Every structure is written in structure tokens, then in C-alpha cells.
Amino acid sequence: MKISVYKNKEEGSRIFSTTFVNEINSILLKKNNCTICLATGSSPTIFYNELVIHYKKKNIDFKKIRIFNLDEFYDINSESKNSYSYYLYHHLLNHVNIKQRNVNLLSGKPANLKDYCESVEVKNIDIKTLFIKGQKSSYILDSDITELKKTFSNFGIIEIPNAGHWVHAENPYHFVTSVKEWI
Fold it and tell me: What is the pLDDT at residue 1?
């Protein structure tokens, strides 16, 4: 397996965005649509900027891509600058030709939280996805695997021994080794 080290996060984001665009285009050729989940936070900001550049160069068309966000703050409006919905529109969605009906963002202010949580259903995520759990963590249970199979068409789960939720900090050697093997 080849491991790449980049000069900085800009270079890594640029190269990864090209790989991501190629993977999306490959899926679109086979299925004519693609479903992905998008993360938020400071880590993917440069990556999203690179996707906008790819879009402007006509390397990717977002019309047949359906997206879900992975998280949202509770009790916050989507228009708030602190909202993940705002973040995704600001950094990516306002700059590409994604159809609004293909945008599935979580609400931070549902009328009834319990009913809303039960109504949210994400299915058919096409991108290869790795779940990493600590042996001492209860975040991913054996009973969750059936639901994961319904949602992710190409996923794996690795368990890091002697670690809780912070697997990369509690057992960095096994974390890196396991991820390298999966890649």
C-alpha cells in the first residue's frame, strides 16, 4: 500500500478532491446518480473550496448528486453562522449546481425532536466508508450493523483494541495500522 505525505493541507485537499471527483464521476457513469454524506468543521473547508474549483472547470456536475450532512447543532437556526447547514451552503452548495431537492440537511430546530429523529432516514450512501470504533466504546454496537448495511453500500468497521472513543489518541499504533490495512 502506498502512503502519501503532503507538504500541507492545501496540497492534500487538492489531491484528495481530484480523487473524490474521479470516484463520484465513476459512480455517476454506472448509476446515473450518487449519494454522499458531507462532514463539517474546519477540516474539510479547503476540500470544499477545491470541489468548487473542479465544478467551475466542469470536472464535476452536481445535478445528479444527493447529499446529506452528518451533524447539526441542536436548537440553532440553519441561517445562523454557527449552523452546519450555513457552513455547507457558504463553502460549497451556493457555488455548485446541486438541485435543492437533492440537499438533505438536518434541522437544528425541529418542532418535536423525538419525532424528527425518528423520521430522518439516510439510505444508499455510495462512497466507500470506514467506521472506526474503540473496543471500550459503545458508539457502534453489533446491533447497529444491520442498519449500517441499509445505509452504506460499501463500508467497513474496524475495532481498535484498548481504546474508547478517542481511538487515534488512545491507541495510535493500532489506529494507523488498521486504517492502512483497510485502505
Answer: 47
